[in-house]
Structures are given as structure tokens and as C-alpha cells.
Design goal:
With 329 residues, the protein is an alpha+beta fold. It has helices at residues 2-22, 76-93, 133-149, 305-327, and strands at residues 48-51, 120-122, 183-189, 192-197, 203-207, 224-230, 233-239, 256-265, 268-276, 285-293. Strands 1, 2, 3, 4, 5, 6, 7, 8, 9 and 10 form a 10-stranded antiparallel sheet that branches.
Length: 329
Amino acid sequence: MRHRLLVLFSAFLIVTAVSAQTAKPAAPAAAKKWTAPRTPWGDPDLQGWFTNLQEDGTPLERPDQFAGRSLDDIKGEELAKIKRDTQKRTITTFQGPLHAPENWWQKDLNLEKGSQAWLVVDPPDGKIPPLTQEAKDRAAARAAARRASGRGPADSWEDLSLYDRCITRGLPGSMMPVIYGNSYQILQSPGFVSIRYEMVHETRLIPLDGRPHASPEIRSYMGDPRGHWEGDTLVVETTNFRDDGTFRNANGATLRLIERFTRTAPDKVRWSVTVDDPKTWTRPWTFSMPLTMDDSQPVLEYSCHEGNLGLQNILKAARAEERKAANAK
């Protein structure tokens, strides 16, 4: 009896061991899908401090070396090398203290985290569409008027850009990545979204209540925004731009910018801009980039006294060159 029990127990152990070896491993639990947070009043929550410094140096259009390739093709080590090379070029360009502590410009620079090889996502070839004939004629007329005026490049404060004069970077320029000042704050309240820009320190107040745009006669550097939600995406349409501060010399009266802000991860918002101006380009076009949430990069005061002094000194230097040329005759 004891022998039979021992045999049965041994057989049980053998069957159990074989079953354990042949049994399929349990399927891993499905990853829980991330859900964008909501504000207390139910809108998708986009709020926070953001930066896109890591996209500084990313070309707007697709470089010719990548002809025939899409953004999705450029990834892995190839993209990492592009970003490393961009980091090296940028640091080389900004060597020296520039009246600030040594390496101040490079302190927060980490272009190797950049996520794209270029920014234009539509048209699919990554190129800005051709200018219309009207836009070419406008540019030619401006150039001819400049030549006919006999003015130099720094005869007056009016010869310098709005950015040089610390007035505005316009839209979407205020959120385009540059070497510093790339901090933005998105704030929400029922019926409104506001965006603060560190560079030149402007704030956009975007109503969400369906009100119409202001009269076309009321135009500004940052335009007249109106927003609404499409699912989890904030869509902002901005019109009514001044002609002297438009993006890439577009026509202020017909330029329409459509921005989309989508929370894609706990620390990411995807920002895209569709540029639509039938008097300037032959078709609308879109560029896109990520905004990264970073509480260590709050919007700081932008005291643009450097620009005010720069303006004065540029004009003084131009006058000095003119006197030197006159004395040499």
C-alpha cells in the first residue's frame, strides 16, 4: 500500500512539472490608457509652465538632405545625431560671457532632447508653399520704395524691427523657440484661456464663449483670438493683424492662424499652427512642435532695457560711420 502511494505521488510530481514547463505565461495586464486631466468645471486641463527650448535650432522646413523622407523616418540614432550636432553648433555660436556669467547661455540648453528633424508637417514634403504673385509684388514694391528713399539700414528707429525695439515678437513668433526666454504659462478659467509669454512679456486672453471677432478695423500685433474645444483639443483662431507685425510678411487683413493645443502626456502639450492667407501663400500650411511642462522654468520678468540701449547705440554707431565717411572725402 505504501509503495502504491509513493508511485502515485511521484507520478503527480512529474505531471505537475511537465504542465508547468508547457503552460503559456500569463498575458501581461493591459497598460492603463492615460487620460488628460480636467479642470473643476470640466474642460481639458492645459495649465502649467511650459518650454520649447529643446526645439531651438530645429529648422522650420525640411532640409534638402531629407528629400523624399517623412518626419517619421527620422528617428532613433539618426535623429539623436542631428540633435547632437545642433547642440554643438549652437554652443559654438554663443561662446563667451556676453556680459553675463560664463556659459550662461548654455546653462539650460539641451537640444539633444529635441523630438523633430523639422517643424512643417503639412504639406507632406515639409516645405512652405510658394508665395502668390500678389505677395511677390508686395515684397518687390517694399524693396523698390526702400531703394528710392535713399535711407540707410539704421537712419531711424523705424528701420529696426518690432522685436529689436522690444515691442513684440508677434504671433506665432512669440512661441517660436530661441536661445533664451522660452517659458510660457497657460492659465484657464471658466470661459477663458490665457497664455503668458516670457519673451517681450505679452499675454493673450482667449475667450471661449462663441463671441464674434472684433471689427476688421480693430487690428493689433497679436491679433484677435477666439477659442473653442474640439474634444480634448483647444482650437484658437486668430485674425485682425496689423500689417507691420505679421508672420513672414503676410497680409494682416487676410491672415488667419489656427492653433491647436492638445495635452498628449502628463508633461506634454502638442502645439500646431495652421497659417492661412490666400493673399500670401498658394495654400494653407501647418507646423507643429511639443511644449514640455517644466516647473523649474517659470515666466520671468522680461526687462527689455537691453533693447532700448541697443536701439540707441545702433543709431549712434550709424551716425559715427556717416561722419567718418564724410571726413574721409
